[in-house]
């Protein structure tokens, strides 16, 4: 009994490690796979593996994969935006930019979500402190872009694809925020894997890039890893943590992912850790912190201004 309670206490920390590490390795895995096989082929492998494993999991739990029309529509729209289009853009971008840069650019997502949410609400959902965070975030992107392009670590098209990937993910996130889904988490993850798997397969076939003869373990292994570690373990851990920790605590994974990505890209891909990458990353992460803690910072600054005035 004592060992069981100790295990239950450790589970949230294990889940936190999963999202900090596995989601931080996505840029490296995408780079490794897309350099060996076409992105459409790579994406079909990743999501095929994830959807098959999730179908087995749902079957083991004696659940039904059937969903209602409303859930089906919501899952379809969210899956196309967040798991098909976003992954397409990231995989094609990984052919043109360093993996470390991809990870840094993805860390901008909390800021793009805020902007998309503001557009959806037709008002700026942030205070003047948050506006400073937004400006700082894009200043960080400018540092990464200028330094990386001049250093030959990226090109403008690759950077543009990464920005589009951030926007597409943010649109999907905000869309799902205003929807309700009755299906279980396991069934949701199945559809979020199966729908992009089908779309990637058709894209690969229609463009002549579904060629099993070109399949190599160096291209397939990173996508198998992504299918398991990112799509299943990472997402399941994230949803598990949201039920046990405060969202503000869970969201701190966003500060760790870029560090993991830059270090692993240097170790596994021999990418250079440049001042542009580090400086841009720090600017973005500080900006994300400002936005996520804007209420606390606004109150703190207001109190200090009052003290000075008094």
Automatic annotation (TrEMBL):
It is found in: Membrane. GO terms for cellular component: membrane. It comes from the Bacteria. The keyword Nucleus does not apply. InterPro entries: AA-Vitamin_Transporters (IPR050638), EamA_dom (IPR000620), EmrE-like (IPR037185). SUPFAM superfamilies: Multidrug resistance efflux transporter EmrE (SSF103481). It is a multi-pass membrane protein. The keyword Aminoacyl-tRNA synthetase does not apply. Keywords: Membrane, Transmembrane, Transmembrane helix. Its main location: membrane. Residues 20-145, 157-291 form the EamA domain. The chain crosses the membrane at residues 12-30, 36-60, 72-93, 99-116, 128-151, 157-178, 190-210, 222-241, 253-269, 275-291. Belongs to the EamA transporter family. This is EamA domain-containing protein. It comes from Enterocloster bolteae 90A9. The lineage of its organism: Bacteria, Bacillati, Bacillota, Clostridia, Lachnospirales.
